[in-house]
């Protein structure tokens, strides 16, 4: 008896750090993967894992249609966020990509017969409770972005618009709202350790706000689980088990390299967020390998 073939999964943003952790895991589970990228030379990891690499851009419907033909599941990881150390990327461009590009992506999926779509989102959209625990139903109060320059506020608005497009698309969708990524390739923890060693690490504000982190490997593992179990029409928070205050996280980083504790006064880039991952644990039969920053940042 022939066993059914695994679905073909198209990954938009197939050369980004998230995809570089996700695609090897999908391939190891026997999925056929198609990496949709703007620059094929940047997709070496995907190609090395046996993924088919196609050129596609979220703002070019024809390229999306060609890249999606023959696929069963569409995973949208497309962003253009800058790394902490600088380089390519732009917050405003990512907001536009999420707000204006997502409907183009969804229409292309529908036109190509890809009826299941998995969307990367951010748990910042559930950051309205301050020190209190928040879940998928919590919303940021108007004006409470926690950012003097409103970058976070615009990012939250764009993410909500993106999620609205997905949920109203008529496709069978799932949304994974990630905590703040760290781990290999993200640049965040490398930047923290570098600044601690040079005495430049500063607490955001007074360091009392909570942050909800997720190791990039745990985010990728949860995504593989979502593809397999398919939490139809659910938005799930994917974060570690133990959100912590910035002063705890940065204090651990500084102590790990023998530096003095960081002082207050850094920029507040995010609102406080202390989110639960219980729904994702239940729906995906998943748990984070790196349950807290202490295990994820150990080096």
Give the neighbour order of strands across the main sheet: 3-2-1-4-5-6-11
The 3D shape can be described as globular
Helix content: 25-40%
The tally of strands reads 13
| The CATH H-level homologous superfamily | NAD(P)-binding Rossmann-like Domain
Number of domains: 1
Low-confidence stretches: none
CATH class: Alpha Beta
Q: Quote the average pLDDT.
A: 92
Question: Strand share of the residues?
Answer: 15-25%
Radius of gyration: 19 Å
Give a quick account of the main beta sheet: strands, pairing sense, barrel closure: 7 strands, parallel
Helices and strands, in order, run as EHEHEHEHEHEEHEEEHEEHEHH
State the helix count.
10
- What is the CATH architecture descriptor? 3-Layer(aba) Sandwich
Task: Could you tell me the CATH topology label.
Answer: Rossmann fold
Give the distance, in angstroms, between the N- and C-terminal Cα atoms. Answer: 49 Å
Helix-and-strand structural type = alpha/beta
How is the topology of this model organized?
Elements: E1 8-12, H1 17-28, E2 32-37, H2 44-48, E3 52-55, H3 61-68, E4 73-76, H4 91-111, E5 116-122, H5 151-167, E6 172-178, E7 180-182, H6 188-197, E8 202-204, E9 210-211, E10 213-215, H7 216-229, E11 234-238, E12 244-245, H8 246-256, E13 263-266, H9 278-284, H10 293-296
Parallel strand pairs: 1-2, 1-4, 2-3, 4-5, 5-6, 6-11, 7-10, 8-13
Antiparallel strand pairs: 9-12
Helix pairs in contact: 1-7, 3-4, 4-5
């Amino acid at each position: 008896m022939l066993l059914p073939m695994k679905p073909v999964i198209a990954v938009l943003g197939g050369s980004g750090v998230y995809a570089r952790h996700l695609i090897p895991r999908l391939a190891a589970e026997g999925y056929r993967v198609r990496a949709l990228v703007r620059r094929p030379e940047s997709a070496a990891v995907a190609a090395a894992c046996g993924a088919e690499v196609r050129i596609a851009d979220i703002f070019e419907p024809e390229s999306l249609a060609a890249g999606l033909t023959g696929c069963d599941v569409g995973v949208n990881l497309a962003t253009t966020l800058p790394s902490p150390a600088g380089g390519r990327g732009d917050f405003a461009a990512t907001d536009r990509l999420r707000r204006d590009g997502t409907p183009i992506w969804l229409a292309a999926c529908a036109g190509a017969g890809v009826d299941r779509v998995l969307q990367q989102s951010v748990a910042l959209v559930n950051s309205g409770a301050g020190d209190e625990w928040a879940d998928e139903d919590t919303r940021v109060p108007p004006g409470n972005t926690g950012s003097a320059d409103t970058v976070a506020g615009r990012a939250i608005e764009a993410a909500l618009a993106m999620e609205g497009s997905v949920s109203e698309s008529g496709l069978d969708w799932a949304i994974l709202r990630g905590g703040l990524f760290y781990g290999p390739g993200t640049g965040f923890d490398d930047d923290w350790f570098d600044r601690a060693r040079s005495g430049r690490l500063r607490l955001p504000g007074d360091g009392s706000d909570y942050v909800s982190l997720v190791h990039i490997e745990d985010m990728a593992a949860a995504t593989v689980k979502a593809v397999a179990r398919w939490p139809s029409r659910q938005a799930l928070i994917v974060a570690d088990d133990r959100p912590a205050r910035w002063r705890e996280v940065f204090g651990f980083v500084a102590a790990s390299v023998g530096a003095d504790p960081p002082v207050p006064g850094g920029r507040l880039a995010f609102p406080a967020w202390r989110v639960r991952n219980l729904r994702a644990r239940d729906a995906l039969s998943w748990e984070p390998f790196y349950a807290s920053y202490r295990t994820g940042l150990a080096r």
